[in-house]
Structures are given as C-alpha cells and as structure tokens.
Amino acid sequence: MMRWHAGWLLIPLLVGCGSQATDTTTETAPRPDNPVMTEALAVWKAGDHERGLEMLTAEIAAHPDDGRLYGARATLHHHAGRNTEALDDLNRAITAIPDDAQLLNNRGFVQLSLQNYDEATTDLDRALEIEPAMASGCNNRGLVALAVGQVQEAVAWFTRALQADSTYVDAWNNRGFARMQLGRLELAYADLNQALRISPQYVNALHNRGLLRIQAGELEAAILDFTEAMMIDPENPRYYRHRGATYQHLKRTEEARADLRKQEWLVELQACHQAIAQQPRSAAARTRRALHFWNYGDETRAQADLKQALQIDPQFGGAKVLQAKIALEYKQYDTVLELTSALLDTNEAAAAASVRGDALLALGRYDDALECYVAARRFDGSVAEVYYRQSQELSANGDASAAEARLKQALDLDPQVEHRLR
Known about the structure:
Layout: H1 35-45, H2 49-62, H3 67-79, H4 83-96, H5 101-113, H6 117-130, H7 135-147, H8 151-164, H9 169-181, H10 185-198, H11 203-215, H12 219-232, H13 237-249, H14 253-278, H15 283-296, H16 299-312, H17 317-329, H18 333-341, H19 349-362, H20 366-376, H21 381-396, H22 400-413, H23 417-421
Helix pairs in contact: 1-2, 2-3, 3-4, 4-5, 5-6, 5-7, 6-7, 7-8, 7-9, 8-9, 9-10, 9-11, 10-11, 11-12, 12-13, 13-14, 14-15, 15-16, 17-18, 17-19, 18-19, 19-20, 20-21, 21-22
C-alpha cells in the first residue's frame, strides 16, 4: 500500500476529558450533589451559558468555602475557552478539597490546555496516585506525553486508559492518532475504526481517519471521511481545510477553492463565538457575529444576534449601522436615513455614511449620495453609478461638456458602468 507522507495536513485532533461524540461535560463536571449546582450545569448545557455561570457565581458568593462550586464553575469557564479563569477556580477548589482525584485530573487538563506541561504532569500523576484506574486521568496523561513529543509513552498511557475502560472512545481515538504519528498505520486504522464502532457519529475519529487515509494515499476515501465529519459538525473549519487541501492535491481546483473560502468564513465565525463566550454581555461581540451572518446571507441568525446586541446596548452604533443595512436591503430608505443621521458624528460615521449613500442613490439624490460616499472614502461601482446618473442629468440639461467629464469619471472607476446601467 502506497504511503503519502503529508506533513502539511497532519494536524492533531486529540480529545481530553470529555467526548465530543456524546456529552462533552461528562468527565469534567464535578459530582453534582448541590441542587443549585445541578441546575446551573443543566442550564448551561441547554445553551444558556451566561445564566448558568451567573447562577454558580451567586451560589459561590453565598457559600465561598464550597470547593465543589468552584470546580463546577471551572468546567463552564473551560468550555468557554477561559482557561485562566478555570485554573483560578480549580486552585480554589483543590485548596478546599486537596485529595479529590477528579479535580486534580481537571486541573491537569486545563494546565495542558495552557501548555503548562510540568504542572499538568504533577496534577495528573497525583490524581492517578489517588485513583489508579481513572481512565480519563490516563488518557490526559497520554495527551501530555504527546504534547512533549513522547509518542511511545503516550501510546502506553492510552492503552492503560483502555484497560481501565474498554469503551473509552476518546482513548481509542487518541491512541489511533499516536500510532499514526509513529507510522503504524494498520494499528491506527484499527483503533480509529473501533472508536467509530463504539460511537458512529464520533467526528474526531472520522477526521483523524481522514488524515490517516491521506498518509496511506487513499485520497478519495479521505474526502469521504472529511465530508461525513462536516455533516456532523458543520461549523468546524478544520474539515474544510483538510478536504480543500486534498482536493488541491487531486487538482480539483474549484472544489478546493470553495472549501478554503468556507474555511476562512468558519475561522471568523469561531472567533465570533469565542468573543461572545469571553464577553457574553458585549454588544460589540454580538454585532460582530450578526454582521458575519448577514454577510453570509444567514438573516435569521443575524437578526437574532442583532436583537441581543440592542438589548444589551440600545444605542450601540455598530448595531445601528447593521440595522440600517438590513433596512436598505428591504428598500426602507427613510428608515436608513433616520438610523444613520444620528451616527454621522460618532465613531461609526464612515460606515453610516456608506449605507446612507446607498439609500440616497436609490432615491435619486445623487449629490447627497456622492457627499456621503466621499465621507465614507468609497470609490467603487456605486460612486461610478452616481457619476453616470449625473452625466445623464447634465446631458439632458444641455451641458454636454460637464456631462462628458462626469461620464469619464464614471468610466475611470468602472469601465462597464455604462453597459451595466443601460
């Protein structure tokens, strides 16, 4: 079997405490015997992340010595990407409950996420002293070994995790990836296929099997794995990156370009998600994602984020500009002019002037539109259209010389404007 060694594609997809195939909080969540903590975790899992965090914070204020509450809040911080805050909470939790193996395991995984490998090793080794058969602890210890380049040791740790729990899908996936790095492709196939037998929708194993198939030169099969992963997890850019690169290798250029464009869009979407997770009460973060959805043509999600942004800050300029853009799309020109008039002396002046110019152009107020475009520093097809319309008016009024000059300005900006607007 031919092998194609594609280092340019080999991006690790490893899984720590929880499995993306099922419940991502199963292993990292503390033992929930506090009713408020139980409810807060359920609220967070249902998607109301801000309220879940607020509930835990209020309960911590009422019971500042309860280490379980800090451990629970650390879980939410970690899943929101706030690992520094998660580490602070785990430090408090372990101070209160120093010999809790699960808390030590969780802190070890957070330390790994922060690339604090020595600290991660210390925490995980201590957790395994307390509970030697902890499968997630062995798995996380293997992740640390992989992170520092000790691949053979990582395989041993993942094997130990599977000895503790033969259904531990993350360990099957991770050992498969480690074996792939060692070039032991048949064993890697076996591990990844076993992960998929246990959990057929396990997207990480599908992705890693795609990478493995690239190494083996099975490019069409790799494309199938990446495509199936996209169907399960459609907003993850890595699948588009790797499928696009595989299409490129097969000289399927148009498909490669489409995937790489989608990847870029999804990378920005992930950044938007992360910004909201970091600052859930930020009107700017909500508006950024709303605009991203709007530019992609997803009006439903754009409107939902815009509504939340305006609830947070009814006067936020960026949200007002997006409101004006949406009104422009629906040809509600008076609404556009009303929304933008209050923004022309703010930090959003350029964006407001740009949208306002488009409304004025549609209304046939060409001089006013041009003034707005100049303020917005726009020199595009819309400005060319203003010049062209003005040239027509000047010609109709008998000023042939001025009309010719305006037409030249229009054609300099857009040589096709005359053909486009006739």
